[in-house]
Amino acid sequence: MASVSSSSLPGPALQAARSAVQAALAEHPEANAAPVAKGNKDGADEDPLEPGEIQEVDMVAQAETIRTVFSDAKNFNVKHPLYSPWTLWFDSPATKGRNLPQTPSTAFPQTPLPQTPGAHAALGWMEDIKRVISFDSVEEFWGLYNNIVPPSQLPQKANYYLFKDGIIPAWEDEANKAGGKWSIQLPKDKNRSNVDKMWLYTMLAAIGETFDPYLTNPDTPAGTPSLVTGVIVSTRPQFYRLSIWTRLAPAGEEDPLRERIEAVGKHFKMAVLGYAEGQKLAGPLATEVEFLSHKDSEKKGKAAKKIVV
Ligand code: MGP
């Protein structure tokens, strides 16, 4: 069973998980402190504080109340919020046509598509894609991760889509329509034993917001949204594909956005997947880590300019 506290997690994953926890705690310090009222845990019949009187805190009681996932993996009572909530979506040949109200599917009950901007235009594409669950804490992420089938065990032609809450995994969504994706295709025979870890590290980098280094630049205006809208793993008969979807795509070589987009691709290739800078990856059924705008993906087959890192 995976756990953030486990030092067996390799570097990038551990770093992403820790940064998710640390950043969440920095933004929500109250999540790490149980409320303790003066002299009485229930807070009942309290004497109001006199001006200048200092609140007494029962440190022992406080320490006894806090059970994080690190100290008690089963009975923790404090959760560490993520930067943003995320939703996992799934499709496979088995989910196709399973969304009719009369379909006796309990595994994927009919859930109406969230009314995100652009959702209506994507109705056809979203028909077979099922919303699995939303989560907004580190603990819920691990709970989900420990209870779903890993990509190596999925049937052919299946996809997991982990997207920021409020963004559906479709080009048509307002947050995606001007964007694109970094992706890598990996032959199945050589990557069956790697793909689960690669997907885990990809998800951790997404929820830990480590993909877009521009966000940690001191000159970046506060509140700038991350470029990343979601991450996908796809199983196909002969290969796996991992993708990172971005909000924007550079218009050309001179577009200043290109550097920021390339930084996402480099982080994906080196820090998350563990390849070396300049390492050639393309081969039979394998691609480099490459970027394509969604507009170019829609054109199918027509010459499209890819960025490669
Ligand atoms: P895919 O599954 O992303 O590519 O898209 P793949 O794996 O190369 O193809 P597959 O046939 O092996 O699954 C497959 C096709 O689905 C695309 O060519 C589009 O026709 C359609 N499609 C994919 N996406 C991501 C979208 C989308 O966001 N919106 C719509 N409308 N269609 C999409």
Textual characterization of the structure:
The chain has 309 residues and is an alpha+beta fold. It folds into two domains: 4-65, no CATH class; 82-308, RNA Cap, Translation Initiation Factor Eif4e. It is 24% helix and 18% strand. It contains eight helices and eight strands. An eight-stranded antiparallel β-sheet has the order 2-1-3-5-6-4-7-8. α1 (11-27) packs parallel to α6 (195-207). It is globular. The chain starts with 10 loop residues before the first helix and ends with a strand. Bound molecules: 7-methyl-guanosine-5'-triphosphate. The site of 7-methyl-guanosine-5'-triphosphate has 8 residues, from loops.
Short description, anyone?
The protein is of the alpha+beta class and 309 residues long. The protein is built from eight helices and eight strands.
CATH architecture of the largest domain: 2-Layer Sandwich
Bound ligands, each once: 7-methyl-guanosine-5'-triphosphate
Per CATH, the class of the largest domain reads Alpha Beta
User: What class do helices, strands and sheet pairing give?
Assistant: alpha+beta
Strand order of the largest sheet: 2-1-3-5-6-4-7-8
Q: Tell me the number of strands.
A: 8
How many distinct folded domains? 2
Strand and helix order: HHEHEHEEHHEEHEHE
Question: What does the overall shape look like?
Answer: globular
Name its key features.
RNA Cap, Translation Initiation Factor Eif4e, 8 helices, disordered N terminus, 8 strands, 2 domains, alpha+beta, 309 residues
